[in-house]
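User:
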Amino acid sequence: MKETLFKLTYGLFVLSTRYGMKDNGCIINTVMQVTDTPLQIAVAVNKNNYTLEMIKESGEFNVSVLTEETPFSVFQNFGFKSGRTEEKFEGFKDKERSANNIYYVTGCTNAYISANVVNMIDCGTHMMIIGEVVDAKTLSDKPSVTYDYYFKNIKPKPEAKKKGYVCKICGYVYEGDPLPEDFICPWCKHPASDFEPLS
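Assistant: Predicted structure:
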């Protein structure tokens, strides 16, 4: 049943924020406009992401809209490690600060949106953040990357020779057999039910 939902159209974005002197960001796949007046967007972020904790404190965030030219290294940097232990923007060259002093990704981004938090809705594993747009800029006319395009053209294919399981969400490979029932993906925090055997 869950695989059917993969047919929905998703984009891929970097959600970023700054609190105190710390910058952080993570990969998300849900951003949408919810109202025109006032101009508001909604983003959904996994509760395990440190970026969410920082947004709760800062009350503001940026969304970088990634393009089909985004290299896999960007997804590795913002999606496969934790801001609790890594400085994701340190050494990352393609970045600029918007008027709210929060980084957005450049180079492989066709737009960024800055917003202030007006509401948060608990949605189980994820938190839905409603933000009022305070700034937005188009950077290029390059096509936005979709989840489907990412899986077909950007994410490396797992090696078929290994015995193990691959996460259908982010591509993490668990080597070994069987996969423990209580296994949690170290990259995207999804459960063992979202893994399939390597073919």
